Amino acid sequence: MKKLVLPGKLESLSGIRRCAEEAASAAGLDSGRTYDLCLAIDEIATNIIVHGYEETMRSGDIGIRAEVTEGELRLILEDTSPPFDPRTLAPPKEYLDKPLEDRPIGGLGVYLALQSVDGFEYRQKGTTNCSVFTMKLGK
Amino acid sequence: MALNVSTESSGDVVKITLDGELDASVSGVFREAVEKAAVQKPKRLVMFMDKLAFMASAGLRILIFAKQKMGADVQIYVVGAQGPVLKTLQMSGFDRAVYLKDAYTD
Description:
Chain A has four helices and five strands. By secondary structure, chain A is an alpha+beta fold. A five-stranded antiparallel β-sheet of chain A has the order 1-2-3-5-4, covered by helices on one side. Chain A is globular. Chain B has one domain (3-101): 2-Layer Sandwich (Transcription Regulator spoIIAA), CATH 3.30.750. Chain B is built from three helices and five strands, in the order ββαβαβαβ. A five-stranded mixed β-sheet of chain B has the order 1-2-3-4-5. In chain B, strand 3, helix 2 (57-70) and strand 4 form a beta-alpha-beta unit. In chain B, helix 1 (27-39) packs parallel to helix 2 (57-70). The model of chain B has no long low-confidence stretch (mean pLDDT 94). The A-B interface holds A 10-11, 13-14, 17, 32, 35-36, 38-39, 42-43, 46, 49-50, 95-101, 103, 105-106, 108-109, 111-112, 115 and B 1, 21, 23-25, 54, 56-58, 60-61, 63-65, 67-68, 71-72, 76, 83-84, 88, 91-94, 96-98.
């Protein structure tokens, strides 16, 4: 799969999901795990676009590419928004037990993303943020 | 795939049907429907999700918004959610916070 580069705008989300779907299908993931991967990518991409680009008044792109290695599919999102490791945002378990009227709006996306994939890593490469989603194949 | 939102109300029940994919780029349409519904001060908000092919947390946030906007006493029903959409609701504890139903009859 070639690297796809899309503008860091919410309108790009469906294109990012279609790209993840194609990579998952080519790697042989079933429909349920394909959905999980798309959900995770969508949530992290949304955070990058909203908090990384829009709220900091920056513009930039989001790149997406896939690698298949040693029984794993890895999807890599790349962006140039301010560095941020989304793993620091995951809500505590108690949050999920609260009634809706007592829940803060937000904070669920990263939790869903991290629960939906077999592995997630964040790293910086110069000014580029790399979010790496891993799904084991044959699971 | 875009998101289509249609609303129907009768008495103190408002029904919202979602069709398509619900992500952050289109969640504003759903939010507007909930805001309009809130004006009618319904006792029950019924959301049909059987045609919803994808739902990100942007959709869950609108459910929280609905409860906070309409008050703790409003009954929120989610009807027909299937497969991964249902799993998302369950993973995030919404199965304990709203009425999850396979079908709805008045």
